[in-house]
Design brief:
Layout (H helix, E strand, L loop, with lengths): L3 H27 L1 H10 L5 H21 L3 H19 L8 H27 L6 H20 L3
Helix pairs in contact: 1-2, 1-3, 1-5, 2-3, 4-5
Length: 153
């Protein structure tokens, strides 16, 4: 189990990651037609599936991160999603304009860094301040209560 300070830091990390994805999901919803057009412009296949899936993953993933629900598997999904977004959406190697090349390079490596944060979150888990921890404590508590009720007293 992590120390209290560690759990607070993990909570802050979850919130920091969640804000980025919640904001992105809300922006996708607000400009959904533009988002779909962008996905078409980068040649993404199955845009009719990818656009709502991406939007839902941003919003639901962000909410799950904040409350700390299913964080370890979610972190792996979000790491893969973030790397895929880096490769498909920030392909700096195809950009000739020096300013755009620099911008896309920064965004690409930012996404790789975020994926690294998700991988760390996968290892650490959600911390004490989370639904995951509360659910684990309930499972242990109910097992203990059950054992206690079968003992002769």
């Amino acid at each position: 189990m992590t120390r209290s300070l560690d759990s607070g830091v993990i909570l802050l990390a979850r919130i920091a990651l969640a804000v980025l994805f919640l904001w992105g999901g809300l922006m996708k919803l607000a400009g959904y037609e533009d988002f779909v057009a962008y996905l078409h412009s980068v040649g993404l296949p199955f845009v009719s599936i990818a656009a709502p899936l991406s939007t839902a993953l941003d919003l639901i993933g962000g909410l799950f991160l904040i409350v700390g629900f299913k964080v370890q598997p979610l972190a792996l999904v979000m790491a893969v999603y973030t790397v895929a977004t880096a490769i498909l959406g920030h392909d700096f190697w195809n950009i000739a304009d020096p300013v755009m090349h620099h911008d896309m390079t920064v965004h690409f490596w930012k996404n790789i860094g975020i994926a690294g944060g998700f991988l760390l979150l996968n290892v650490t888990g959600a911390g004490r301040i989370s639904v995951d921890n509360a659910r684990a404590a309930e499972g242990v508590g109910s097992l203990t209560s059950h054992r206690g009720s079968t003992r002769a007293g």
